[in-house]
Structures are given as C-alpha cells and as structure tokens.
UniProtKB/TrEMBL annotation, chain A:
Keywords: Signal. The keyword Signal applies. This is ABC-type branched-subunit amino acid transport system substrate-binding protein. It comes from the Bacteria. InterPro entries: Leu-bd (IPR028081), Peripla_BP_I (IPR028082). Residues 41-384 form the Leucine-binding protein domain. Belongs to the leucine-binding protein family.
UniProtKB/TrEMBL annotation, chain B:
One of its GO terms (biological process) is amino acid transport. This is Branched-chain amino acid transport system permease protein. Belongs to the binding-protein-dependent transport system permease family. LivHM subfamily. Keywords: Amino-acid transport, Cell membrane, Membrane, Transmembrane, Transmembrane helix, Transport. It comes from Flagellimonas meridianipacifica. GO terms for cellular component: plasma membrane. Its main location: membrane. It is found in: Cell membrane. The lineage of its organism: Bacteria, Pseudomonadati, Bacteroidota, Flavobacteriia, Flavobacteriales. The chain crosses the membrane at residues 6-25, 32-53, 59-81, 93-112, 132-158, 187-209, 221-246, 253-276. It is a multi-pass membrane protein.
Length: 408, 290
C-alpha cells in the first residue's frame, strides 16, 4: 500500500511538472518570438503511418514534406525555409498522442499540416487545441474537424457525406438510374458514406434496394456480392478500402454481375486499383476533390518529389499531401514577415477560392470546412482518371447527417 | 442461388482446410498451435511474388521455389527457435510462435511495404467454368482441386510411407518412438516444414483474389484455427470437415441472415460445439497426453 502511495505521488509529481514545463515554455517563447519560428526557419509538424498495416497512407506526410521541399527550393517564405518534422504513428492513436506531444513540446512546431486518419487525429484534437497550435487538413473526411468550428483547426478534405451527395446526384441526374445498392465498411468511415447516400436519396424519394456491410478483414465476399446481385441493383456504391474493392469487383465478375460501380476518393488511386484488379477497374466512377487539370507547376511538384524521395512515384496519396499543404504556404506568405500564430490563423481565415490541386478552398470566420464540393471521375481503359463532371457543391444538411450517423 | 452459395462456401472452406490442416499437423506432432502459420504463408507468397515480378521467372519455378522456401522456413522455426527454448511449456511455445508471427509481419511490411501487390498465376480468376447450373471461376476450381489433392497427399504420406509412420509414432508417444530409434526431433522439424508448405499453397491460391499485402493471412488463419477447433484439433479428417462446414455455414449465413455478423458466426459455432463436445465434432477425446 505504501509503495502504491509512492507510485501515485510520483505520477502526480511528474504530471504536474511536465504540464508546467509545457505551458511555461510556450508562454515565455511567445513573449519573444513565435514558437517554431526563427529568422531563417519555420517548423511544421506532420505524421502518418510510415510503417505497419496502414503504411499505404504514409505517403501523405511524405507528400507534405516534398511540397515544402518544393517551396524551399523556390526560396522559402519571407526568407525562411520550412523545416518539416515527420513522425510515424503506425496508425495507432496511442502513438499519435506521443508523437504529437513530442512535436509540440520538444520540436516546438509552429503548426501541424495533415496527420492521417480519423481515429489518430481524434486522439490529439483536444491536445492540439489546448496548446493553441494551428492545424490544417487532418486527412479524414469525417465532420469532427469543422463541426463545430474550432479556432485553430482547418479542414480541406471533402466530407464523406458530401461525396455521397455528389455520387447520388450523378447517379440520378446523369446516369438516370434509381435501383441503387450499397456495400460499405462496417465502421464510421463506411457508415458516413451510407448515411450520406441515404439522405441524398431522400430528396428523390428513393431508397437503397440493398445495403451490405463488410468487415475490413473479410477476404471472402461471395455472399455479400450474391446479395447485391440478387437485389437487381443497376448501380452499386462502394465505401470500402482498396483490397475490398478488388475482391468485390472480382467476385462480381465471376458471378456475371456487372452493375455501374461508384465509389469515393478513398479508391481514387486509379493506377493502383487498375493494377490490382487486372483492368476490371476500367469504367468505375468515383467522386473526388482533385482537379486533374489544375493550374499548378506540376513539373516542379514532381521534380521536388523526385529530389526528396527518389523511389516514390507520384500517386494520389502523395498528391493529397501537396493538396493539404498548399493553403498553408499561401497563409504563411499572406501573414507577412512578422509571423505569429494569430496572424497565420487570420490569414487562413481570409483564404477565398484558393485552388491548388483542388477545385477551390474557402474559409471564413467560423467557417472551417474549406470545401463542400466534389467532381465525378471515371477510370479509363488504361487506368487513368478522367473527369466526367463539373464540380458539384453538396447541399446536404450536415446537422441532420451527423444526427443520423449517431443513430446508425 | 443456394447451390451457388454452397459453392462459394466450399471455395472458402478449401482455404480454411489448408490452413487448418497445417495447424493441426504441427499441433499433433508438438502440441504447439503455431500462430505464425499464417504469416509464414504470407511471407512465402511474397517470395513467389519476388521471383515472378522481380526476377521474371516462370510460374512453376517461382511456385516450386516458394514452396522450398516455405519448407526451409518451417525447419528454421523449429530448429533455430522453438527447439532453443529452455524447458518450454505449451504457453511459452505459443508465445514464441506469436513472436515469430510479429517478426515476419514486420519484416514483410518493412521489405515490401503495405501496398497491395498482384500475384499473377496462370489460372484465370474471372474466366468461369459452368456445370450443373453453377458458375465457378477457374481459379476457385483450381483451389478446390489443389486443396483436395494436398489433403490426399497428406493422407498417403501418413498412411503409407515410412516418414508418415515415424510422424505418427512421434505424435502418439514421443518417448517410445525415440526408444525405437526414430529421430523424433528431426521428425517434428520436418512436420513444421510440411505444414509451412501447405500454408504457402493456401497463400498462393488466395493472393490473386485478395491481393497480396502483409495483412492477407490474418483472417484465414483465425478461420483455419476456428475450423480446426470445430473439427477436433487432433483429427486431420475432422479439421478438413470442420473447414468445409465453416465455409458453407458462413456463406449461407451471410446471404440469408446477416453479412454484418458473418465473421462472428465462426466463433459462435465454436463456442456452441465446445460446450457440447469439447474435443470438437470429430476429435477423439482424451484427458491427458502422457
């Protein structure tokens, strides 16, 4: 018992002192200059699963890094070079907490850009807010980042709800189909798509003819696809991960079932999907927030990637790292030479219709979701993404959708 | 529709059967439920992938090479790791296999990354064969046939060869087998090798459909384990039957009742079976191996 008391005392002591140190340092440094900013550098933090089962998404933070390398090569911002700190969290929220604490307290980052995944980002959301570190573009289409709005946090990823809206709009108005079924991953990600689709269909007085859930580990989707086929759906919406997408279309091909497949930005890496499905992905349509004809220095972007990560091909995940970081560079520029977090947040708020790799990002006072639209794309015969519709803005009532998702 | 669903179940069951067979072989010879079995199969499948994609070797060379690798990996696990354990009890051995699993998983992720890879094999996964009104892809048909062939081979090996006799003798009574001049340690090591080869075949048959990544064997291993428990861990025919029952029940359950609970049904069945028949459906009951 005595030992236990000692232990508790030690834990309390350590906690108090470490909290004190964290707060003290940020206060004292803000009196002199801003945290993470020197005369010649600005330190930016980012993280993602560089290793482990979700390592495919590790290319997002690498993309962020390569983008700032591009900016540095062009001379930096107001004479300062961007110094990027990348941490590996293996997609494990407990590790994210440790990584982010380290970046805030030891590396003293000025701001965060990116950070991959709903669960890891949720684990650090409050901590980052408490420390008043600006955070742009968590890589997740959940609504937790901008609803309700939070002063330090800006979201540029299109919402799963909004993508669902755009998909349904495309199916009903462009394809003219109304027998729609859905297969979704049995978690927050999959259900966001499901709820979005259902709400968007209400407008047209339609209901899904079949809804089938899958687990992320499922390998045999025979009975899932049999159900979809049995429903007679002409269009099937998939809200799943790449492996499941490959298994679903393969199983359907065997059963002689060929609906119009529709999916979202998660499966927008057409090159990868085309390869792992041995060409079956051709003709699949998906919603996405990349403008493939964007007016950016594509050559410079790709050269910077090659310079920084010679083995890494230019994929959707890398590109999204660039997309997440673009508005940050703009806001840093707009903040002027005397950079502070306050000025930076102000500059982020003032961003209107900024289009880098995306279709246009706007923020405002109390408006923290940068984009509410998406366009539709199709995978071509040779695995390229082709845009087939203009940008469509979502009209989904988010409060209603959030409420529905909680019920699901 | 029901015929088609049963067919789907048999295909899934074939994979479960191979994994279950592999697990049950090592279990019988060493009382170790080898939880690294799945990752060993995954790793061997990557070896086949490297030979095919990087070195452009013909499929059969890559296939043979991968199986040879799998055999050596099995030997390695037993000779270099399990046998080195000091005074091991069953729990220690189990943890050793879990450790080996984590090691292989990490190594594969580090070496090949976690993006999906394509394993190209000369059997089509979308061209179909039709008989009795049922559609089956060539690859699925091949999966069933190879699985059956392998099961028969294991049966012949155990029943009609000297090696098989030695394996069985070691399984039944290691001390008595040793006294009779059977090199029991070598026999157990060989059993690990054979199990690993069976697992690798399952991996290679699965990879073209599910795509190859370090996570590919996690679910089949659990299902194979479930099938082995269901059928009775110490009866090889039992685990195979258990695997097919599991595959078919899952498929029917998923279609008629709920896909959401499809993955759980396997474990539900196990709980029920173990409650009424603790040694599995086809297992012979014994209180303690002496």
């Amino acid at each position: 018992m005595k030992n236990l008391n000692h232990l508790i005392a030690i834990v309390i002591f350590v906690t108090i002192t470490s909290c004190g140190r964290g707060r003290g340092s940020s206060e004292s440094s803000s009196q002199t200059a801003e945290v993470g900013v020197t005369d010649s550098t600005i330190t930016i933090g980012t993280w993602g699963p560089l290793t482990g089962p979700a390592a495919l998404w590790g290319n997002v933070p690498r993309g962020v890094d390569a983008y700032f390398h591009y900016i540095n090569e062009k001379g930096g911002i107001h004479g300062r070079k961007i110094n990027v700190v990348i941490k590996d969290d293996g997609f494990q929220p407990s590790k994210t907490v440790a990584a982010v604490r380290e970046m805030v307290e030891k590396d003293k980052v000025f701001a965060f850009v990116g950070g991959v995944g709903t669960a890891p980002c949720m684990a650090v959301k409050d901590y980052i807010a408490r420390n008043e570190v600006p955070w742009v573009s968590p890589a997740s289409g959940a609504t937790h980042w901008a609803y309700p709005p939070q002063n330090n946090l800006f979201s540029t990823y299109s919402l799963y709800f909004d993508e669902a809206f755009v998909q349904v709009d495309h199916i009903v108005n462009s394809l003219g189909k109304d027998k729609i079924a859905m297969i979704y991953q049995n978690d927050d990600f999959g259900k966001s798509g499901l709820v979005g689709v259902k709400i968007a269909m209400e407008k047209y007085d339609l209901e899904l003819v079949e809804e089938v859930s899958t687990e992320v580990t499922d390998q045999d989707l025979g009975s899932h696809v049999a159900k979809l086929k049995d429903s007679g759906a002409e269009v099937v919406i998939m809200q799943v991960l790449p492996r499941q997408g490959a298994i679903i279309t393969g199983t359907a091909a065997v059963l002689g079932y060929a609906p119009q497949w529709i999916t979202n930005s998660t499966l927008s890496d057409t090159e990868l999907m085309h390869k792992i499905t041995e060409g079956r992905w051709a003709g699949v349509r998906f919603s996405g927030f990349f403008n493939y004809e964007a007016d950016v220095d594509m050559e410079g972007y790709q050269a910077a990637l090659k310079d920084k990560y010679p083995d890494l091909p230019w994929t959707t995940f890398v590109a999204s790292g660039y997309y997440f970081a673009e508005p940050v560079a703009k806001a840093l520029q707009d903040s002027g030479p005397d950079l502070t977090r306050e000025k930076f947040i102000q500059a982020m708020e003032n961003i209107r219709d900024f289009s880098g790799l995306g279709f246009g990002i706007s923020f405002g006072e109390g408006e923290r979701q940068g984009t509410r639209g998406a366009a539709m794309f199709e995978c071509s015969e040779n695995g390229q993404a082709e845009q087939i519709s203009a940008l469509k803005m979502s009209e989904l009532n988010l409060d209603y959708a959030i409420e529905k998702l909680a019920e699901e | 529709m029901i015929g088609q669903l049963i067919m789907t179940g048999i295909v899934a069951g074939s994979i479960y059967a191979l994994v279950a067979l592999a697990m049950s072989l090592t279990y019988k010879s060493s009382e170790v439920a080898n939880f690294a079995q799945g990752e060993m199969a995954m790793f061997s499948t990557y070896v086949a992938f490297v030979m095919l994609a990087t070195y452009q070797l013909p499929f059969w060379v890559a296939f043979g090479g991968s199986l040879l690798f799998a055999f050596l990996l099995g030997l390695f696990l037993h000779l270099a790791i399990i046998r080195r354990a000091k005074d091991p009890n069953v729990l220690n051995l189990l943890i050793i296999t879990l450790g080996f699993q984590v090691f292989l998983y990490g190594l594969a992720g580090w070496k090949w990354g976690s993006e999906q890879r394509v394993l190209k094999i000369p059997v089509s996964q979308t061209e179909t064969v039709e008989f009795a009104g049922l559609i089956i892809s060539q690859l699925n048909l091949a999966t069933i046939l190879v699985a059956i062939l392998l099961m028969i081979s294991v049966y012949i090996l155990l029943r009609f060869t000297k090696l098989g006799l030695a394996i069985k003798a070691t399984q039944q009574n290691e001390t008595a087998a040793k006294i009779n001049g059977i090199p029991t340690r070598r026999i157990v090591a060989i059993t690990f090798g054979i199990s690993s080869v069976i697992g690798a075949v399952a991996g290679i048959l699965m990879a073209p459909i599910t795509t190859l990544d370090p996570n590919m064997m996690i679910e089949p291993l659990l299902k194979g384990f479930a099938a082995a428990v269901l059928g009775g861990f110490n009866s090889l025919a039992g685990v195979v039957c258990g695997a097919f029952i599991l595959g078919i029940v899952e498929s029917l359950f998923g279609f008629y009742i709920s896909t959401e609970f499809k993955s759980i049904v396997a474990f539900l069945i196990i709980v029920i079976v173990l409650y009424f028949k603790p040694s599995g459906l086809f297992g012979t009951h014994y209180t303690r191996k002496v």
